[in-house]
TrEMBL record:
This enzyme's EC code(s): 2.1.1.63
Biological processes per GO annotation: DNA repair; methylation
Keywords of the record: DNA damage, DNA repair, Methyltransferase, Transferase
Single GO term (MF): methylated-DNA-[protein]-cysteine S-methyltransferase activity
Lineage: Bacteria, Pseudomonadati, Pseudomonadota, Gammaproteobacteria, Chromatiales
All residue ranges annotated as the Methylated-DNA-[protein]-cysteine S-methyltransferase DNA binding domain in the record: 77-159
CDD domains from the UniProt entry: ATase
Family: Belongs to the MGMT family.
Keyword Transferase: yes
Protein name: methylated-DNA--[protein]-cysteine S-methyltransferase
């Protein structure tokens, strides 16, 4: 397992991978570094898969860029199903928690909890799932810095959400 911080247009992110497989993206690496028991990886830059970095940079340059990355996502069977549905939502479009829940025969709250547990935000686009009115939450945040990231990601993809929600 390797991890490396990268600069995104909205701040720093921390990317986790194993071999050529993306395993996680932290949107607040300072917060996660406090929880990270792993030693810093001095060789991370030399083994960082070019594919992961190039696709993230392509997306940050063009919100319609698609991710075609091998993923290893740790989660329950239900979470895996939700994340699979999220990956079918095209850039520039959104779905409500209820719409995703209907596809899965589930409840909107359960979809929201699976979105919150998403280990690879951005690549598994939980930011494209919104409330009936307004943004909803993002990675467990309903009013702070992560919600600002969700707003940036959606705006970057061409989605317009009113500022007052």
């Amino acid at each position: 397992m390797h991890a490396l911080s990268l600069t995104a247009p909205f701040g720093s992110i921390r990317v986790h991978w194993h071999q050529e497989t993306l395993t996680g993206i932290d949107l607040n690496p300072a917060e996660s570094a406090l929880q990270d028991s792993a030693e810093p990886d001095p060789d991370a830059a030399s083994v960082m898969p070019v594919l992961i970095v190039s696709q993230l940079h392509a997306y940050f340059s063009d919100g319609s860029a698609r991710f075609e990355l091998p993923l290893a996502l740790s989660g329950t069977a239900f979470q895996q199903r939700v994340w699979a549905v999220l990956r079918t939502i095209p850039s520039g479009e959104t779905r409500t928690y209820g719409e995703v829940a209907r596809v899965l025969g589930s409840a909107a709250r359960a979809v929201g909890q699976a979105c919150r547990a998403n280990p690879c935000p951005i690549v598994v686009p939980c930011h494209r799932v919104v409330a009936v009115q307004g943004l909803g939450g993002f990675s467990g945040d309903t009013s702070g810095s992560r919600l600002a990231i969700k707003r940036w990601l959606l705006h970057h993809e061409g989605v317009r959400i009113p500022d007052h929600h």
